[in-house]
Amino acid sequence: MGWTRKDLLSMRELDAGEITLLVDTAASLQEIASRDIKKVPALRGKTVVNLFYESSTRTRTSFEIAGKWLSADVINFSASGSSTTKGESFIDTAKNIAAMSPDVVVVRHSSAGAADLLARELPCSIVNAGDGAHEHPTQALLDLLTIREKKGHFDGLHVAIVGDIAHSRVARSDIHGMRKLGMTVTVAGPPTLIPPFVQELGAKVSYRLEDAIGDVDVIMMLRLQQERMTAGLIPSLREYARFWGLTLDKLARHARPDVLIMHPGPVNRGIELAPEVADGPYSVILDQVSRGVAVRMGVLLLLAGHKGGDGA
Amino acid sequence: MSLLIRSGRVIDPANNVDAVQDVLIEHGKISRLGRHLEAPADVEVVDAKGKIVCPGFIDMHVHLREPGQEYKETVATGTRAAAAGGFTAVCCMANTSPVNDNGAVTDYILAKAKVEGLVRVYPIGAVTRNLRGEELAELAELAESGCVAFSDDGRCVMNAGLYRRAMEYTLPFGAPIISHAEDSALSAGASINEGVVSTELGLPGQPAAAEDVMVARDILLAELTGAHVHIAHASTAGTVRLVRDAKARGIRVTAEVTPHHLVLTEDAVRSWDANTKMAPPLRTKRDVEALIEGLVDGTIDCIATDHAPHALSEKEGEFDRAAFGIVGLETAVAVVLDRLVRSGHLPLATLIARWSRDPARLLNLPGGTLSAGAPADVTVLDLDAETTVEPARFHSRSRNTPFGGWQLRGGPWMTVVGGTIARVAPR
Question: In Å, how far is A96's CA from the nearest CA of chain B?
Answer without folding.
Answer: 15
